[in-house]
């Protein structure tokens, strides 16, 4: 009989802990600034798809089709994305691409919870933008609205590889152009991203290839080419400590400050750890919206 009240109490505690975990996971989502950012991603993707796909319409129709102008289409895609980044970059970060958002998640620039809303808004914006274009285009010339397919002489693996490479160069350009650690960046960041998109759109757009290429580009830039010095130092100390414990030996750490920082990386049972990857408090009044790819 005495175990039942304890079980009920544990059940209530477990339910409360689960709610707290969910609230921690969605930290920063229920804010006005975030929903402005989500709306910006939706609107930017809608305009981008509407304008860009409009350039793929063959106004000669099915009977007398005009030659496909790949330069025109590529420039339209590139300049459209550059314009959207310039317009909405300070509001949402100007991802305007699910692959870019996935890369931001992998490099800890945006939380998983926020990325779900970002990608949902991007997909809805793309669908509605394509729908508007379909409604305003005469049926005789609507065609496939720029839907891309793998060439008949190529396999799906070839298409995947091409998409991986062109998205790699896009996301690498984004990370390199928007790196706050660099002081040598001159010119328009939005235009650099736009030209990168124009280069990529000489080929095609899919899902798996771009996401893999985006993750590889973001990971290589953030963790190999230009890693965060403080994060690298903390990981090195944590790995060294783990290696010492594995060998069964213990070494005294003289730098107490470093030991405390390393211990902070280790999750202890019974303690709820809240890790603010947005680092809003550390910016001390600095407006994060000034960074083109900053999280909200």
Secondary structure: elements and pairs:
Elements: H1 3-25, H2 32-54, H3 70-92, H4 98-106, H5 112-136, H6 156-177, H7 189-200, H8 208-225, H9 229-246, H10 256-263
Helix pairs in contact: 2-3, 2-5, 3-7, 4-5, 4-8, 6-7, 6-8, 9-10
Protein model, in words:
- 61% of the residues lie in helices and 0% in strands.
- The protein contains ten helices and no strands.
- The longest helix has 25 residues.
- About 15% of the residues have low confidence.
What attributes characterize this protein structure?
globular, mainly alpha, 61% helix, 296 residues, 10 helices
Mean of residue pLDDT values: 76
Series of secondary-structure elements, N-terminal to C-terminal: HHHHHHHHHH
Helix content: 55-70%
> What is the 3D form?
globular
Q: What's the total number of strands? A: 0
SS content category:
mainly alpha
Unreliable spans: 249-292
Strand content: under 5%
Largest sheet, described in full?
A: none
- Spatial separation of the terminal alpha carbons: 51 Å
């Amino acid at each position: 009989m005495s175990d039942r009240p304890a079980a009920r109490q544990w059940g209530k505690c477990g339910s409360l802990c689960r709610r707290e975990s969910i609230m921690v996971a969605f930290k920063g989502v229920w804010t006005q600034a975030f929903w402005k950012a989500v709306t910006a991603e939706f609107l930017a993707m809608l305009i981008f798809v509407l304008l860009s796909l409009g350039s793929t319409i063959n106004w000669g129709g099915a009977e007398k089709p005009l030659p496909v102008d790949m330069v025109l289409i590529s420039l339209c895609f590139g300049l459209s994305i550059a314009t959207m980044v310039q317009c909405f970059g300070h509001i949402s970060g100007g991802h305007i691409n699910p692959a870019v958002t996935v890369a931001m998640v992998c490099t800890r620039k945006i939380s998983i919870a926020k990325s779900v809303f970002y990608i949902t808004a991007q997909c809805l914006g793309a669908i509605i933008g394509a729908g508007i274009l379909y409604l305003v285009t005469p049926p005789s010339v609507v065609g496939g609205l720029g839907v891309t397919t793998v060439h008949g002489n190529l396999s799906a693996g070839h298409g995947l590889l091409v998409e991986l490479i062109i998205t790699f160069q896009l996301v690498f350009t984004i990370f390199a152009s928007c790196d706050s650690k660099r002081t040598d960046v001159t010119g328009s960041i939005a235009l650099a991203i736009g030209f990168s998109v124009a280069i990529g759109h000489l080929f095609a757009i899919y899902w798996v290839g771009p996401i893999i290429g985006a993750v590889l580009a973001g990971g290589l830039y953030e963790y190999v080419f230009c890693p965060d010095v403080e994060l690298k130092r903390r990981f090195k100390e944590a790995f060294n400590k783990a290696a010492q414990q594995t060998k069964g030996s213990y070494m005294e750490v003289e730098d107490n400050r470093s030991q405390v920082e390393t211990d902070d990386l280790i999750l202890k049972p019974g303690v709820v750890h809240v890790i603010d990857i947005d680092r809003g408090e550390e910016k001390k009044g600095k407006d994060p919206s000034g960074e083109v790819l900053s999280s909200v």
